[in-house]
Design goal:
single chain
Length: about 210
């Protein structure tokens, strides 16, 4: 009588090797922000508000890292090629904008090039486009990410990024609706820090995405 084949063992649960990436990255970013404030103390605001501040540099560095990470994920077949290419280009453009203040150049000098800049919506078009295109891009990226916790990091990054854009646009909104309250000074000071936190959250989400080849 032939022997029965042994039962197939149940697959063992394999923990996500990228699980510790998000807390490590966020801790490093928080540590950098605190160190920047300590180095610039007692005028700690300069570490956050100056265009040449260490926090502004970190924002550029994170955006460039996001661009490179998107390319790596395409190479590992962890993202669709079109999505990965779009992310790489979009984050590179944002990194250049952060480093060379391109949207500020448009905002304060576009009246020299077009009369349409008499309207605040035209002057603020780059920032408004980041908010709108960012939402569409992250909705696209949401479907490519596999884990619920990874998607949570992604949408947390969008929420914080929108908050940073809202802080940036608040003074412009007050010119149209004077009844709007003043922003808390601390929130206005930490606008750049909010941008950095948003970028770190999105980067953490991408770094948690496993590839399909070694």
């Amino acid at each position: 009588m032939p022997h029965a084949a042994p039962p197939t063992p149940l697959p063992r649960h394999r923990p996500n090797p990228h699980r510790g990436v998000a807390p490590a990255l966020l801790a490093a970013v928080l540590g950098y922000l605190l160190l920047s404030a300590w180095v610039y103390a007692p005028a700690w605001e300069r570490a956050f508000r100056s265009d040449a501040s260490p926090v502004a540099w970190l924002s550029s560095a994170l955006l460039l890292t996001l661009s490179i990470t998107a390319l790596r994920l395409v190479g590992e077949r962890a993202l669709p090629r079109l999505l990965g290419a779009w992310l790489a280009v979009a984050f590179l453009v944002l990194a250049l904008d952060e480093q060379f203040m391109l949207h500020e150049l448009w905002k304060f000098r576009c009246h020299e090039w077009t009369a349409a800049c008499q309207y605040s919506t035209v002057r603020e078009a780059p920032m408004l486009a980041v908010a709108a295109i960012g939402l569409l891009t992250l909705a696209w990226l949401h479907h490519a990410l596999g884990h619920r916790s990874t998607r949570a990091l992604l949408w947390a990054g969008l929420a914080v990024g929108w908050l940073a854009i809202g802080v940036d646009q608040w003074p412009e909104a007050q010119t149209h609706w004077p009844w709007l309250p003043e922003l808390p000074p601390l929130l206005a000071t930490l606008e750049e820090a909010l941008e950095v936190l948003a970028e770190a959250l999105v980067l953490a989400a991408l770094l948690r995405q496993p590839g399909t080849q070694g």
